[in-house]
């Protein structure tokens, strides 16, 4: 990804811990000076998302776009696209953004949109990944950073992290263990893309 002024737009729905890890990496690893890249905006479909307040405190531009205020998925995605495109993003980063995206949206950001999924893809696409991994008796679990394509939780895998599934794990304890590794691999995957 060449050029300067590489704007990163991050989409969240909840706590935004991955977003915060990315914003922290941008600061401590001096992405602006080294790579010409900055976190330009954080956008949420939920105004109450804790991550939005955090981003605002960091001086990052934020926006909330309530999907329930739109008649259909297409209308929401069109508005979201307009909001994202104000920042001319080089990279759109989905970080716990809990919406299914329309094909038009995915196509618009093809090649410059990535996601993190809390499983070792191609295992366990979709929801309840940790519970399903425990039920299947998996000895390891993890997370994957991947490019976003029209097929849910598919697309080229860019980074993965593996953690053990321990005796007595619940979906919650496993999720927490995986999340610590998400915070490592997501900034790493982005830095690699920005440096390429
Ligand atoms: C993460 O587990 C991510 O893999 C999944 O949603 C969660 C988001 O957590 N897609 P956070 O909002 O980044 O804290």
Write up what this structure looks like.
- By secondary structure, this protein is an alpha/beta fold.
- It has one domain: Formyl transferase, N-terminal domain (Rossmann fold).
- Helix content is 39%, strand content 23%.
- It contains 7 helices and 7 strands.
- Strands 3-2-1-4-5-6-7 form a 7-stranded mixed beta sheet, with helices on both faces.
- α1 packs parallel to α7 and α6 crosses α7 (171-195).
- The longest helix is centred in the last third of the chain and has 25 residues, at 171-195.
- The termini are close together.
- 5-O-phosphono-beta-D-ribofuranosylamine binds at residues 12, 14-19, 95-96, 116-118, 143, 179, 182.
Brief write-up:
By secondary structure, the protein is α/β, with parallel strands linked by helices.
């Amino acid at each position: 990804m060449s050029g300067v002024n590489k704007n990163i737009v991050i989409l969240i729905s909840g706590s935004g811990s991955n977003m915060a890890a990315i914003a922290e990496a941008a600061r401590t690893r001096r992405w602006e000076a080294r790579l010409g890249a900055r976190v330009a905006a954080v956008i949420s479909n939920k105004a109450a998302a804790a991550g939005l307040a955090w981003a605002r405190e960091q001086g990052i531009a934020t926006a909330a776009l309530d999907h329930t205020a739109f008649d259909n998925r297409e209308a929401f995605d069109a508005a979201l696209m307009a909001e994202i495109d104000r920042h001319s993003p080089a990279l759109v980063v989905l970080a716990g953004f809990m919406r299914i995206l329309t094909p038009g949206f995915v196509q618009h950001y093809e090649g410059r949109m990535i996601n993190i999924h809390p499983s070792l893809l191609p295992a366990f696409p979709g929801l309840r990944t940790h519970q399903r991994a425990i039920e299947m008796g998996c000895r390891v679990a993890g997370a994957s950073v991947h490019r976003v394509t029209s097929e849910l939780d598919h697309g080229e895998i860019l980074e993965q992290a593996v953690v053990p599934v321990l005796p007595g794990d619940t979906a919650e304890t496993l999720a927490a263990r995986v999340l610590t590794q998400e915070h490592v691999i997501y900034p790493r995957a982005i830095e690699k893309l920005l440096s390429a």
